[in-house]
Amino acid sequence: MDTRAVGAAEDLIGALASVAREAAEGTYGSAIAQLQRVPDGGTFLPLVQALGLLLGRVEAREMRLENLVTGTIRALVAAEDAKSQWTAGHSFRVAGLAVQVGEKFRLPRRKIRELHYAALLHDIGKIGVPERILENTSPTLVAEDMDKVKHHPVAGQEIVAKIGNDFKAISLAIRHHHERWDGKGYPDGLAGESIPFLSRIIAACDSYDAMRMDRPYQKGLAEPKIRTILEEGCAKAWDPAVVAVLLGTVRRLAE
Ligand SMILES: [Fe+2]
To answer: Within a domain: residue 6?
Structure first.
């Protein structure tokens, strides 16, 4: 092989290595786009074409798997929604909002996926709370019923952890979605930045959506009132940085 051919082969190998690294990160679309830009394959053209075919198939399989996971989670949330007409649709709205907030914080793709799943499943532990409590028409609950409600983040963590190791961070985000910035939340009384960031995002989005919802004992609050509560609750109930981004996001959505 002459020197020019060796140089071309080295360029090609370097480009293919870069494609393989991109694929290893799970960004198949980007890997395929890179592959289409590699230098002329020459003798190695069949290898380049085979790699393109392989990446296309792996990407399709990954998407089928992802759709299966998302579909299973949606089915679980629908089962939870079926228990209470008052909260139906809440988890889907919280998840939509949480993802937008997470994207504003430029969280990596893997974290956004975890945030999406954790927000969808944040109240899945309520599946174990009796319907008579969830459908309660009074704003206050007796202590025993309140304990059952307050157990739902831990119950949710235990349910979701059973899915497998890939859901460990998600189950942890669920466990801590009722912690407060000032440490007065539950179940562990974590405060400030010791609360997982995904939980802090879910907590603020959860409260925002919950305040908008009609309840058996109370009409949903108007947007300006919710804004005031969130602003005043900063540094008490919620992470101030998250609230600032959340309020910016909902303002943009309203425009
Ligand atoms: Fe909750």
So the answer is: yes
Helix (H, G, I), strand (E, B) or coil at 187: coil
CB 173 within 8 A of CB 94: no
Please give all residues whose CB falls under 5 A of ion ligand 1, grouped by chain where several chains appear: 123
Query: Which is nearest to 130 in space by CA: 112, 115, 144?
Result: 144
In the three-class reduction of DSSP (H, G, I as helix; E, B as strand; rest coil), residue 180 is classed as coil
Do 158 and 221 belong to one domain?
yes
Is there a contact between 178 and 154 (Cβ–Cβ < 8 Å)?
no
Q: How far apart (Å, rounded) are the C-alpha atoms in residues 103 and 245? A: 10
The reply to whether 192 and 151 lie within a common domain is yes
Which tens digits make up the pLDDT trace of 142-170? 888 888 889 999 999 999 999 999 999 99
Distance 198 CA to ligand 1 centre (A): 14
- Identify whether 76 is part of a domain: no
Q: Report the CATH number at residue 180.
A: 1.10.3210.10
pLDDT of residue 2: 75
Range of the domain at 44: 1-67
How far, in Å, from the CA of 178 to the mean position of ligand 1?
A: 6
Which residues of the chain register pLDDT less than 50? none
**Inter-residue contact 129 to 152 (CB < 8 Å):** yes
CA of 206 to the centre of ligand 1 (A): 8
